[in-house]
Amino acid sequence: MFGMKAMRRASPVLLFLLAALFCFATYNILAMMRHNRAIRNFVGANTRSVLESDPIVEMPEHVKKPKHVKSPFHIALTATAAPYSKWQCRIMYYWYKQKKDLPGSDMGGFTRILHSGSPDNLMDEIPTMVVDPLPAGLDRGYVVLNRPWAFVQWLEKAAIEEEYILMAEPDHIFIRPLPNLAHERFPAAFPFFYIKPEQNEKIVRKFYPEEHGPVTNIDPIGNSPVIIRKDLLGKIAPTWMNVSLRMKQDPETDKTFGWVLEMYAYAVASALHGVQHILRKDFMLQPPWDLETGKRFIIHYTYGCDYNLKGELTYGKIGEWRFDKRSHLRGPPPRNLSLPPPGVPESVVTLVKMVNEATANIPNWDTS
Ligand SMILES: *[C@@H]1O[C@H](CO)[C@@H](O)[C@H](O)[C@H]1NC(C)=O
Ligand SMILES: *[C@@H]1O[C@H](CO)[C@@H](O)[C@H](O)[C@H]1NC(C)=O
């Protein structure tokens, strides 16, 4: 009785509060849109928590791609002629061919951009364009600085049919047919937890001056995996090259960023062009940290997977069972690698099975 009465008395107040809240929320949303950060705020920030369930649920309606529009992307794989790069490229290309024509795929043509300056023995196996490496000494021993230069040359020379490009790396394996996750002027990228522009403001500001806006404009990404419209990449790539060389030449930046310098360079270069990425956590997974392949698209096997025979991760300590790409710097891993012991996560088991399936089916696997 008392409850009902109190509520009836309270309801106008409640209504007022609700209305006020609604106005406040609307105002906030409008403010965000005006700030030209709509994508980042809807997709970027929020995706970190909601992505696992429905990666695109938070996208503004106008950004959701109409389902019927096919927009194929070209797969561009930067590589060297080192044995270590070659065997990974062969596995990568094998799985591209397996997934390319499956339903849901927007995967188009494929080019290995070989930035060693001369052809190698995989020219007939994998569609390849040879480009020049940086002039001797310019990369200061940091070979991935060749990547931006490779993209600049490729975009200039190649006749690319597709309007979009996926920048991929040799240690990527397609586990599902990959749709075009980009949308018009918004490329799609994988957010890396260790790329933190805000926490490196002092350094980032050397390359991203204040007049361009807050450092939060810089996405926590590298150049790969990214699906991006060709014309946007055409603008970003020369800047990316310029920024990466300047970062490498600056001792403080070089020391702080280390092996992720070239990722920061891409993130900064794209922000300098006002390009914001749709951040897609489901773009890829990284064993052994991600335990299940789930609905993700690419396995990135950059981390070593070390386990004891009880199936427990012994990361950083050589495991009784292990798969680590770095165990095979000088040549390909053998066919038919032993599967991990029971208890090892599904992501790692899938990785090894897919490597085995590829090596079993690639002719002359052991000979190159
Ligand atoms: C990068 O661009 C700046 C400004 O446009 C220019 O002054 C500089 O020489 C370029 N640096 C390199 C390494 O290309
Ligand atoms: C792969 O190795 C397993 C033992 O680890 C063996 O039982 C199997 O026959 C091998 N398969 C092939 C195709 O060589």
UniProtKB/TrEMBL annotation:
Q: How does it sit in the membrane?
A: Single-pass membrane protein
Domain of life of the native organism: Eukaryota
- Pfam families, sorted: HPAT (PF23452)
Give every Hydroxyproline O-arabinosyltransferase-like domain span.
73-366
> Which InterPro entries does the record match to this protein?
HPAT-like (IPR056508), HPAT/SRGT1-like (IPR044845)
Q: Which UniProt keywords apply?
A: Glycosyltransferase, Membrane, Transferase, Transmembrane, Transmembrane helix
Give the main localization category. Answer: membrane
Annotated Gene Ontology MF terms? Answer: glycosyltransferase activity
- Compartments, record wording: Membrane
Provide a GO CC annotation, any one.
membrane
Q: What is this protein called?
A: Hydroxyproline O-arabinosyltransferase-like domain-containing protein
Q: Taxonomically, what lineage is the organism?
A: Eukaryota, Viridiplantae, Streptophyta, Embryophyta, Tracheophyta
